[in-house]
Amino acid sequence: MNCAEYREAIAADPAFDGGASHVAACSDCQAYQREMQALNVKIAKAMLIDVPELKMPELPDIEADNVATLPVRKRWLKPMWFALAATVVLATSISLRISNVFQSYDSLAEEVLAHMDHEPASLRVTDEPVTDERLARAVPANLAIFDRNASLITYAQPCIINGHKVPHLVIQGEYGPVTIILMPEEKVAEATPIDGINVKGVILPVGDGSIAIIGDRKEQLGPIQENVVNSVTWTT
Amino acid sequence: MVSEQFSAVPVIKGTRGGSSRMTSSSTEGQRRRRFDRLVAVFYQDMYRFAAWLSRDKAIAEDVVQEALLRAWKSLDALRDDDAAKPWLLTIVRRENARYFERRRLETVDIDNLSASQAALLAETPNDELDDLREAIFGLDDDYREPLVLQVLMGYSTSEIAEMMGLKQGAVLTRLHRARHKLKGNVEEQ
After folding, report:
1. Across the beta sheet with A164-173, what order do the strands follow?
2. pTM of the prediction?
């Protein structure tokens, strides 16, 4: 890859992670890469126009005609009816629990812990970093900028916490994976401890938002917290 | 900062409530809760996408209203809520196209803007951002749309290609040219 090819690629996608050997040896292209990434942040800020309050339109009733008609029911024996009802109740409660849709939590910390339980695959011990593209998807420029050079990021996924899209990241700590959830729209008044069965952590107030950092009970989270907070810039 | 929870229905105006002619009111209620939850999460993205497509705040509001209606009617076609964002943005994109097709609106003349168009450019008292916003506003639709999808909505170039019905190479070219134009504009300031 030469300079022209690299610059074309980085201008098309500032998260482009190819051409590493070229850019490592070319200071001009390194400068161009930084310039493009800085421009991208400015573009994101410029695009973040104010959004008016939602005015939901009058939603029409869904016509019964559109719903599949049930065939005429046979008269069931009572035990069969009970068995079916019990199955439906059980299936509904399981699906609601899995989908987490209607579940409410007493606190943000509780929801963060519950979310971690729902994504156990994130807590993989690995030295394989996520790609820049994946990180950019999880941390879009209109939410935050996360300096990936500060840590080994092994998981990056956009998730929903308290109704907001938030970046869910995992870095590798001394005692295993450390979960980081960036919540630019969740303001907390003060640092809030998180206490799980095998994990501990904290939700730190950062600007108008907060960052949850959770790791193994033996993990020294202090230096990680400082590193993470210094790596994040909100753009909302 | 507004805290939008899943149950943030109170901020929604003009809702009709739970009356329904469906076979089951609980099914209707679940459908409505699902819709409200998706809208609460993605409304901002829908509006901003519509605003940058149409370059007009008033049109963006109309487009989003139409898109919400269409999404409500076809909600059952959305099998997986994880796919809700591209689904909703695609609806916005089509409604925007329909809007301009119906009105047969001409391309926006940046030197002769309506108040609603100008409002989009006068968002914040920040000279640098104002200039850049105007430069984005002045980009051709073909360049502006993939840029919004990439920068604001966080989509990869392959996903943008799929949404816009283009080849990935074409998307890369458009994005490269868009940034090249914006870079030139920033350097001129």
Report:
1. A153-161, A164-173, A176-183, A209-216, A199-206, A192-195
2. 0.58
